[in-house]
Amino acid sequence: MNEQSKEHGMRVFWSVTVGSKWQIVIPKEARELLGLKPGDSLITITKGDKAVAFINMDLEGFLAYMQEEMSKKCSDLSE
Question: What is the predicted pLDDT for the residue at 8?
């Protein structure tokens, strides 16, 4: 894991394969870390043509989190 990943609390897991029905299998370590259960919904975040994150959070919770983070960043920039 590189220094930027450590700083942001990011973890990288092994690759996943897209099956013939366009499904992926999330690695066991990632499922356990996120507490995923069958039927859970994930928010997919992309940048350009790359998927950069799958978030285990309801949309309302995700938007509230993003709003809070953006407010922090704006405060940091104005100081």
Answer: 59
All structural domains of the chain with their residue ranges:
3-78
pTM: 0.53
52/47 Cα distance (integer angstroms): 7
Distance CA 34, CA 26 (A): 11
Collect the ranges in the chain with pLDDT lower than 50. Answer: 1-6
Q: Taking the mean position of all CA atoms in its chain, how far away is CA 51?
A: 9
Residue appearing with tokens 């350009």: 48
In 3D, which of 55, 31, 28 has the Cα closest to residue 43?
Answer: 55
